[in-house]
TrEMBL record, chain A:
Species for this entry: Sphingomonas gellani
Pfam (any one): KdpA
Identification of the protein by name: Potassium-transporting ATPase potassium-binding subunit
Positions of transmembrane segments: 6-27, 66-85, 134-156, 177-198, 253-273, 285-305, 330-350, 357-376, 382-401, 421-440, 486-510, 530-553
A GO term from the CC aspect: plasma membrane
Domain of life: Bacteria
A molecular-function term among this protein's GO annotations: P-type potassium transmembrane transporter activity
Cleavable signal peptide: none
Taxonomic path: Bacteria, Pseudomonadati, Pseudomonadota, Alphaproteobacteria, Sphingomonadales
Swiss-Prot/TrEMBL keywords: Cell membrane, Ion transport, Membrane, Potassium, Potassium transport, Transmembrane, Transmembrane helix, Transport
Role: Part of the high-affinity ATP-driven potassium transport (or Kdp) system, which catalyzes the hydrolysis of ATP coupled with the electrogenic transport of potassium into the cytoplasm. This subunit binds the extracellular potassium ions and delivers the ions to the membrane domain of KdpB through an intramembrane tunnel.
Main localization, broad class: membrane
From TrEMBL, chain B:
Location, primary (coarse class): membrane
Protein species of origin: Sphingomonas gellani
Record: residues binding ATP: 338, 342, 370-377, 388
Membrane topology category: Multi-pass membrane protein
First-level EC class: translocase
Protein name: Potassium-transporting ATPase ATP-binding subunit
Compartments, record wording: Cell membrane; Membrane
Amino acid sequence: MTLQGWFLILAFTGILLALAKPVGLWLHALYEGRRTPLHVVLGPVERGFYRVAGIDPAAEQGWRRYALHMLLFNVVLMAFTYAVLRLQGVLPGNPQGLPGLSPHLAFNTAISFTTNTNWQSYAGESTMSNLSQMLGLTIHNFLSAATGIALAFALFRGFARREARAIGNFWADVTRVTLYLLLPICVAYTLFLIASGVPQTLAGVVDVRTLEGARQSILLGPIASQEAIKMLGTNGGGFFNANSAHPFENPTALTNMVEMLSIFVIGFGLTWCFGKAVGNTRQGWAILAAMTILFLAGTTVTYWAEASGNPVLHQIGVAGGNMEGKEVRFGIAASALFSVVTTAASCGAVNAMHDSFTALGGMIPLFNIQLGEVVVGGVGAGIYGFLLFAILAVFVAGLMVGRTPEYVGKKIEAREVKLAVLAIAVLPLLILGLTALASVLEPGLAGPLAKGPHGFSEVLYAFTSAVGNNGSAFAGLSANTPFYNGLLGIAMWGGRFFIIVPMLAIAGSLAAKKHTPESAGSFPTTGGLWVGLLVGIILILGGLTFLPSLALGPIADHLGMIRGQLF
Amino acid sequence: MARTATASLFTAELIVPAIAEAFRKLHPRALVRNPVMFVTAVVALLLTVLINVGGDGLTLGFKAQLIVWLWLTVLFGTFAEALAEGRGKAQAASLRATKAELTARRMKGDRVEQVPASALRVGDVVLVTTGDLIPSDGEVIAGVASVNEAAITGESAPVIREAGGDRSAVTAGTRVISDEIRVRVTVNPGQGFLDRMIALVEGAERQKTPNEVALTLLLVGLTVIFLIAVATIPAFASYAGGRIPVAILAALLITLIPTTIAALLSAIGIAGMDRLVRFNVLAKSGRAVEAAGDIDVLLLDKTGTITIGDRQASEFRAVGGTNEAELAEAALLASLADETPEGRSIVSLARERFGVTTTALPAGAEVIPFTAQTRISGVKAGDLLIQKGAVDSILRADAGMGETAAATELRRITDEIARAGGTPLAVARDGRLLGAIFLKDVVKAGIRERFGELRQMGIRTVMITGDNPLTAAAIAAEAGVDDFLAQATPEDKLALIRKEQTGGKLVAMCGDGTNDAPALAQADVGVAMNTGTQAAREAGNMVDLDSDPTKLIEVVGLGKQLLMTRGALTTFSVANDVAKYFAIIPAMFVALYPGLGVLNVMGLATPRSAILSAIIFNALIIPLLVPLALKGVTYRPMAAGPLLARNLAIYGLGGLVAPFIGIKIIDLVVGGLALA
């Protein structure tokens, strides 16, 4: 570990903490449907959308209607993408003349992008036409992110409102988030990336003669525009298979920093927005503090593990940290940090191959996802997932102050507990259940390239990543098979919507409740004690659920490595 | 009902029947009410049936030991519940005995017939005379009697019950000591106070409270999550090329699911109600006890709660040139025949302060009694007329008196007294104003500190009084309440409760009169005094058998203690799992990957000993925590922040650390006895 590496990590965290409030303020304006400076230009566009679609943005929806419209919207978009991918061969915008996708790959990919997972069972450059990238996939990069933020808004309203039946209007939330948040930032972000050297063109392949005189085909495309929303919307689906390790996606140290920052920035802002929405910004800061502690702890372990390197290689004279699978341009600290950021935030973009990390270095990304993608988490999804854990934490420990539990002024009762448990149980059910299936069935066992615990980690990681809607790949798993595409598709769908529906039900149930004013006797949910409790509950629940699987995967892997056994 | 203040928890008469009852509670229909224990029983049963299925490398003896401990886990849970219920059952038995001997003399027109109490219906009228037990709850419609209510309250001093007014309610099982009353029956058999009390202390009809339901759901959720975690292990192990014996998986599952809190949950609830009963407060539902813990605002009646019931004379303030001794003598004469505590305090003040020695009224003196209309009392002997009463009434009593300079002075003094929290009584002789007696409300000792504690806990206190605002403000300031409602009518009380509730607050109050009933019903916790009317007792969700309004404060404490005990044991139970994992995971997997042996941080002797130790700890912790569950965690009034810090340190950190030590010790014993 180097001073420079630590400086990078701390500067990164510091910049984000400074950005939390300004971004949060902006988000809060959208949450409340207030006018922003951008309304001068985009206001007519927004109203135009509503007019065309026949939507009254002021017509508020109860949680059932909100959920139904959200589901319909996602199902229709998914069907659209499935069609585009299947018909790619006969559609325009296909300079390489690529064929349509197989049914199972199209199924998997359509779900993957709809659910903000962006798991890719394919290599982008050799599978997707420009049209598929821009129309089939990028559209989801925006709308799945906007959906996540809209859902977070709906839950915030549940906490903030008193004796109300409605939790907002889904269409208005999605439109506003897309128009006033994602699009404007992405335009500026894209220009920055182009200026930094990321290609943005509709041309396909450029043939060049290299210095050695060989001919090489270099693939270009509309990369910068997709890159921007890929990071900002915690999507993570790369234009290239190498993702952000590819120089065309992530050319410089500066773009690397900006890309990492853009993964977290909305998530940080949403915590502040939550605090503001419930009338006490310290509530938001407390959540952010818990997230930051978990994030820095994970970063420390991964950075330490990667910097320590592999003792087996040390013995044969290869000194230093673990550089396998890492870009030399970024080095150990920036790769370790990127890996933790991208898994903590349900992004899934990578600038190094997690499969090549040391066992413990790679366990942290895995564990980050298993915790439920709540350490900052995907845009919107992170905070609503976190709030589910907060509800449980309040319920378990809140009784100890001698009152029935309440959180930000809302009593937590049987209904909320039931729904929160239901949502959280989805994680072990799908992650462990599907991994178990793949561990015993023939087509599942055919997937992992490595043997022993490392191979097990590859399978476990794939399902964890899918259920967590992360989308990063440990790599080393041949996933483009009907078995894996199918199961992973189910995992992604369940990991997203099986959590969202109970979460929205909680929002509806909370909105209908009275507000309990805070007093000296109320369970404190702002101070250090609460932050510690949140961290503890998340680690204990996550740890207890997944420890057996981790023991047989990365932990056994690591302990094997110490004894000189590699897998 | 005989009530021993500190009944010992573990006496043979309680434990022996509880053990028998623990086995009876193994009935599936009883067990299924507690899903976590049900799962434990199912697992134990499965292993028992499958004990002979071999091929897992485990000896029969080891498996048998595991099975015994699994069954013990279930039994410890049913035992805890049986023990908690047993304490109430003893009380119920004595109540039942009372109930069995009840007969009634029912009035049919002019005829009186002897019928068993169980034949009485609402609307029947019964005659009860000296020495009789009152056969049913009802209302006195004719007569006055003194009634011994010890059977219900444990208090042997008789109370007066009379027709009309706020003391008309009588309770089945109480005994008329003198006189005769006619009682209209107000409840049908089986629905009376006594029946409710029996059901309550027995815990027979105990419904799960809302918070208990929510907690049970959480425990079921955790059980499902751990079931998934354990059920997937064989598949993972098969990837690693190994097999995990079913018995080991079962042991892991049972140690992980929250058996500790699940086993103690209903015992905690029963014991909480029981504490309330021992405290002579009867809650009509567990929901009310939980609500007590959540109270934000306490409405407290001034008299009897904040001040001692009776006002004391503390000063004589003469006006118009009268000297104080003269005033004192007149006041004494006017009060000699007044047997109220106020009257007696005037007499003793006059004697002590001014040495007035008169001990009897002049011969032929006529006492003017106090009436609600005149609000004046006094004495008349020949030409001498001494009047004593409310300032306004005295001034009005004699046409010219209100206009004098002395009257102006009196009004000033009256204001001063009111501002100081006192009540003035004017004294006049032969139509001449002498001055005023300062009757002081005496604030109870230590009540100010109590309110301070309540404030720390985030509970606001509001004093309710019929006094004028000036007096009320002074007493409020002296007693340290947060707010007061002066010249309060029952409507004002109701409006105040509604207003607080609209702001999301939970309100507790106590009351006794029929006109309190709407407010008692509206309050989240309404404690009716047992001496109160039937209407008040029906409206409230708790009844205080001692009719002591101060107990409202303790009731809040008991509610909080109940919730805290539940929370503390839940946290403890969940935190325990960490150590159990560190015992079982390495033991389970070390054969697959020897490197995992380093996770055996406790240095447990062998994998089998580790597993056995974990399951033994998991079982033994239940009876070890039974006393805590029944007594409740130590409760001290303090703000939520420090309270949470304290309880998290004890039950959270304690829950993390204790099993590491406990399992290690058990492992040493298991090793020493060569059990595994």
